[in-house]
Amino acid sequence: MIEVLLLLLLLPLLLYIAVPQIRKMLASGVCTSAIQLPGKVAVVTGANTGIGKETAKELAKRGARVYLACRDVQKGESVAREIQIMTGNQQVLVRKLDLADTKSIRAFAKGFLAEEKHLHILINNAGVMMCPYSKTADGFEMHIGVNHLGSGVTTYSVHPGTVDSELIRHSSLMKWIWWLFSFFIKTPQQGAQTSLYCALTEGLEVLSGNHFSDCHVAWVSAQARNETVARRLWDVSCDLLGIPMD
């Protein structure tokens, strides 16, 4: 009986010691690039929290001018000040962007083009998951409207892994599961590594269009590699948004 009680008392301490090591083991992908970014311009969507915030912080630390493209401008301004203080980089700017409204997207793009001549790094980080059924300002179902049509087509597709972020905020069940398995869930900083790897690692151009996970090219299904299906998706997406097909 005494041994059992002692084990129960020691269990929290053992978990406290073990958790960082468990997370480190699961977060196998790390961006090791030492490249600096003075004079470079970056845009990170959804940068006021989680993976986006950590990504923006790292880009600012390396000297880039970073635009935090956020729906909640007030929260974005607070994060921008935090990053400025932490990195010493004052070129961290906030601009309004609501991916659930194509008018907001076009206004953001127009404003950015008026401010900048070049965009060197684009991180389409913002997204939603398990929202209650709703539609965007343009009448699209929220998930496809924000995650696909709002973000557009990116050069690289990345999977950050299972990360402690606000993505699950709409689901009480997922919050409970995240809490239950919190020992095995990446921190936002760990979750940002693959995005940073694809943005900063030189020589990845030959791998354009691939899917990455844990800073490595990852396997995707045959359907995901189907060029005919991809072309059809592109054409349908352009038609829904009313933009010319190339």
From TrEMBL:
<keyword id="KW-0560">Oxidoreductase</keyword>
<keyword id="KW-0732">Signal</keyword>
<dbReference type="InterPro" id="IPR036291">
    <property type="entry name" value="NAD(P)-bd_dom_sf"/>
</dbReference>
<comment type="similarity">
    <text>Belongs to the short-chain dehydrogenases/reductases (SDR) family.</text>
</comment>
<dbReference type="InterPro" id="IPR002347">
    <property type="entry name" value="SDR_fam"/>
</dbReference>
<protein>
    <submittedName>
        <fullName>Retinol dehydrogenase 11</fullName>
    </submittedName>
</protein>
<dbReference type="GO" id="GO:0016491">
    <property type="term" value="F:oxidoreductase activity"/>
</dbReference>
<feature type="signal peptide">
    <location>
        <begin position="1"/>
        <end position="20"/>
    </location>
</feature>
<dbReference type="Pfam" id="PF00106">
    <property type="entry name" value="adh_short"/>
</dbReference>
